[in-house]
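Attaching the record inline, Q. Sequence:
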Amino acid sequence: MKNKMQSLVKKVRNTKGGFTLIELIVVIAILAVLAAVLIPSITGVVAKATQATEKSNLQTAYLASQLAVQDLDEAGSAITADAVKTGAAKYAPSVQGLTVTLDGSAIKTVAITYNSKTITYDVTAGTYNGI
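Structure, as predicted:
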């Protein structure tokens, strides 16, 4: 009995450990299925994050434009689109490609160019375009 046990232990020790080819293929197939399920959901999250960034930058540009209009009004200066754009750059220097449309002294629309794409906030309608 002892000899049988010793020969069995030797046999187990002598066999090479590792995975069979079938086991490896099954694991790779499972990982491929998981990747196929997860990748579309990750790209959706990235798209939503980009939209949120664009909207935030546009809101920042709008608030900076409002502050610029207020500054011009308090200083008694003429409220023009160029003056508002210049004044807004003081409050939001990171916002690039700002365009402001005025209706008298009120801001009508604010647009920024972001990643080669123009997005607009229509103040009177409260809508965002291009996002």
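Helices lie at 2-14, 21-75, 81-91. The chain has a mean pLDDT of 86.

More tomorrow.
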